[in-house]
Amino acid sequence: MRRVYPAISIVGGIALWWVLALIPAFSKVLPTPIAVLQAVPQQLHAGLGTNIGMSLMRVGIGFAIALVLAVPIGFLMGWYRWAQGLLEPWIQFFRTVPPIALIPMVVIIFGIGESAKIFVIWTAAFLTIVISVYQGVKNVDTTLLKAARVLGANDFNLFWDVVIPASFPYILVGVRLGLASAWSTLVAAELIASQHGLGSMIEQAGLYYQVSVIVMGIFIIGIIGFLMDRGVLWMERRLTRWQETLK
Amino acid sequence: MAGDIEIGSQHVIKVENVTKAFATGKGTHVVLDNVNLEINEGDFICVVGPSGCGKTTLLNILGGLERADGGTVLHRGIPVDGPHPSRGVIFQQYALFPWKTVLGNVEFGLKLKGIPKRERTEIALHYLDLVGLTKFKDAYPKELSGGMKQRVAIARAYAVDPEVLLMDEPFGALDAQTRGQLQEELLKTWEKEKKTVFFITHDVEEAVILANRVIMMDTHPGRIKRELRVDLPYPRNQETKLLDNFTQLKNEVWMSVYHH
């Protein structure tokens, strides 16, 4: 039964879309599902593979740098009050600025090359992950720290054997949210200043009024985002089997 | 001097004039007011008192998890200035590491001591056997009931071979039946291992069945009101609760703690 409703929803949604696309009033702006599917081989010739590859590469690099920096900084902020005091105001401030709003400034500083896009993606992912890790460390059960201390743990043991494993689920949540915000920011960044990538593909399709290519691009972006999210979820479930779950 | 030391009357822990206060919005709140106590080797001390009498604070100070504002706590003559594996603590909330298996939890303190892998597994399995959980060694805490979790915590505390066990209402969250069972198990282990126990509870019956000395505390400010020796025969079990003597002692403690 659990799978029935989602199936009805997906099939029904596509059917509704199809019907709407056949109505003359909509058919100019809304391509049929068939037209979208037909856009795939046509775009494959026009470099769809390169566009997907470029987008994934940018997200990969920006996200990887963000993760590598955010995890230790998040731990530092959660563990040392001075680090929290020094860093939190800036992190909280930049968190309220949509990364896309940084683009004009970033373009001025970095130009329109790859580093500009990677920087914007990095900002989005870094801020999300750092907050998550920091919250994770803050939420470590103090009784567990006490229990470790009375068993003979020194500061290094507390950190390595309690704080890191206890905040691990939060790191994974950070990875998931960070990846999602990296992906959505990337597409926005490519819309504005790029020659390749999924964002620029739909931007250019817009210029030439190729609605089916736009819709295809939206689907590809959505499907890749969904697959990445599922991948992290799957990893999360494998790595934190010990966690209490709500039934 | 060595001749003066008599087994069974030697102080393991000596609490001298311990005072603790917290600053609140309305001024200072005295949690512990000039507490003095001598804990002897092999003692099973139960501290009973209403909530707010500072019994948990006292336990934390003995364990080195909190600092006293005044006075000293000596463990074998050495001032307590932090936690130490020679003073094991058992918490009401079990405090098992959820990411470690049962065996991993019991082995943890041994690992910190630098005991090699094979040996620590051996020791851990011995204590898991003692609490009857050998079969669950590979389970994660989330798969265990409350009583089982507390048994693991007890095995974990015993495994590092502490001299004193500090227990903070360890059975407070358990149902009556499980609590009775764990009380009996704890008595059995205590008779076998002869560890000194400092046990906090608000359950008068629990205090009388377990302790050889019951310490009664008063609140506002928290201080020791009275001490009572419990000379019920060993081995004690649930049937001990049927003795007239038990009822008498229980009433006496109850009147002293909760009746004014």
Distance between termini of chain B?
45 Å
Compute the number of structural domains of chain A: 1
How helical, in percent, are the residues of chain A?
over 70%
> Quick one: overall form of chain A?
globular
Query: Runs of chain B with pLDDT <50, length 5+?
Result: 1-8
Task: Please outline what is shown here.
The complex is a heterodimer of chains A (247) and B (260). Helices cover 82% and strands 0% of the residues of chain A.
Short descriptors:
heterodimer; A: 247 residues; mainly alpha; MetI-like fold; 82% helix; B: alpha/beta; Rossmann fold; 2 domains; 10 strands; disordered N terminus
Describe the structure.
- The complex is a heterodimer of chains A (247) and B (260).
- Chain A is mostly helical and 247 residues long.
- Chain A has one domain (30-239): Orthogonal Bundle (MetI-like fold).
- Helices cover 82% and strands 0% of the residues of chain A.
- Chain A is built from eleven helices and no strands.
- Chain A has helices spanning 4-22, 24-27, 33-45, 48-79, 81-95, 103-110, 114-138, 142-150, 155-192, 198-207, 211-239.
- The longest helix of chain A has 38 residues, at 155-192.
- The radius of gyration of chain A is 22 Å and the shape is globular.
- The mean pLDDT of chain A is 90.
- Chain B folds into two domains: 2-86 and 164-258, P-loop containing nucleotide triphosphate hydrolases (Rossmann fold, 3-Layer(aba) Sandwich), CATH 3.40.50.300; 93-161, no CATH class.
- Chain B is built from seven helices and ten strands.
- Chain B has a six-stranded mixed beta sheet with strand order 6-7-8-3-9-10, sandwiched between helices. A four-stranded antiparallel beta sheet of chain B has the order 2-1-4-5, covered by helices on one side.
- Chain B is globular and about 50 Å long.
- The relative contact order of chain B is 0.17.
- Chains A and B meet through helix 8 and helix 9 of A and strand 6 and helix 2 of B.
